[in-house]
Amino acid sequence: MLQKHARTCWRRRDLVNAPSEPCQQSPVHLAAGGGLACFLLWQLQTRADLNQQDIFGEAPLYKAAKVGSLECLSLLVASDAQIDLCNQNGQTAEDLAWSCGFLECAKFLTTVKCMQTLRPS
Q1: pLDDT for residue 11 is more than 60
Q2: Among residues 26, 86, 44, which one has the least CA distance to residue 62?
Q3: For residue 6, is pLDDT > 60?
Q4: What mean pLDDT comes out for the span 79-98?
Q5: Is residue 77's pLDDT more than 70?
Q6: What is the dihedral of CA 88, 89, 91, 93, to 10 degrees?
Q7: C-alpha span between 103 and 121 (Å, rounded)
Q8: Whole-angstrom Cα distance, residue 18 to residue 28?
Q9: Which domains occur in the chain, in start order?
Q10: Is the pTM of this model over 0.90?
């Protein structure tokens, strides 16, 4: 029975991206915000929407930046998360990493942003 349910969930992207609570945070948001890289990787392998924004306009990248999870940030960036999204306050994930004092994460996002700017279209 469990295997049948797992196969159904694997095929249904809407289940993976379903907000789990009133703040409209998906399991990807929760994994990134908890610094749970292993669970985040599994979510990404199920084709979860890594740019889905919650009611605050924050994508999973923001959640990882706010808790200082360089591992989760790396996974999200490697999976082509949009790093230029802005939340309701006009902040990017990079801005949040700087303001939360996660310098290594902020420098990583700054470097990625610079590399993406230099990449030919």
Answers
A1: no
A2: 86
A3: no
A4: 96
A5: yes
A6: -50
A7: 29
A8: 10
A9: 24-118 (1.25.40.20)
A10: no
